[in-house]
Amino acid sequence: MNRNQHSVEILSLFLLFCVFAGAALLVIAAGANVYRQTADSLENQYHQRTLLSYVSMKIHHYDTFGNVFISDFGDGNAIELEEEIDGKVYHTLIYLDGNSVKELFAKKGARLDPESGIEIASVQSLDLKLIQSGLLRIACVDLNGQQNEVYVHLRGNGEAR
């Protein structure tokens, strides 16, 4: 009888250990899933904010009277930034081409192909609107459907072309 009682105790301890180990694995798996979702969300927000910050800083760099325009290019509107280098006028365009926000630098009057730009970020959409004289709204929707926007005050008032 003593031997049977000892076997039952060992079996019950083993079952208790298995239940504890299973519960620990479930908690670890749930925690890893939450961590992955949080990390993905933070990465998406980082990329979107970086894009909006980059575009805002680029606009501020060129923002003098008559150097910032909204024009049609690529798959919608584009920010057109104009500058003069050694007596020649150049344009920097920031625009949407498919699911890519791209930047293209070229001499004014050059024939431009939207596919020639350098990709800055991947997004679902990019919306550029001159809300009122001197206020530009830049909104983008990332590949996961999250929308962010920024408003940029233009010292040179900006204009649509």
Describe the overall structure:
This protein is an alpha+beta fold and 161 residues long. It has one domain (40-160). The protein has 1 helix and 9 strands, in the order H-E-E-E-E-E-E-E-E-E. The protein has one helix at residues 2-62; strands at residues 68-73, 76-85, 88-97, 100-107, 118-122, 125-132, 135-141, 147-153, 159-160. The protein is rod-shaped, with a radius of gyration of 28 Å. The termini are far apart. InterPro entries: DUF4860. It holds the Pfam family DUF4860. It comes from Flexilinea flocculi.
Helix and strand pattern: HEEEEEEEEE
The residue-averaged pLDDT reads: 86
The main sheet comes to: 6 strands, mixed
Q: β content, as a range?
A: 35-45%
Helix amount: 25-40%
Topology (elements, then pairings):
Elements: H1 2-62, E1 68-73, E2 76-85, E3 88-97, E4 100-107, E5 118-122, E6 125-132, E7 135-141, E8 147-153, E9 159-160
Parallel strand pairs: 1-9
Antiparallel strand pairs: 1-2, 2-3, 3-4, 4-5, 6-7, 7-8
Question: What distinguishing features does this structure have?
Answer:
single chain, six-stranded mixed sheet, alpha+beta, 38% helix, 161 residues, rod-shaped, 9 strands, three-stranded antiparallel sheet
Summarize the structure.
The protein is α+β, with helices and mostly antiparallel strands and 161 residues long.
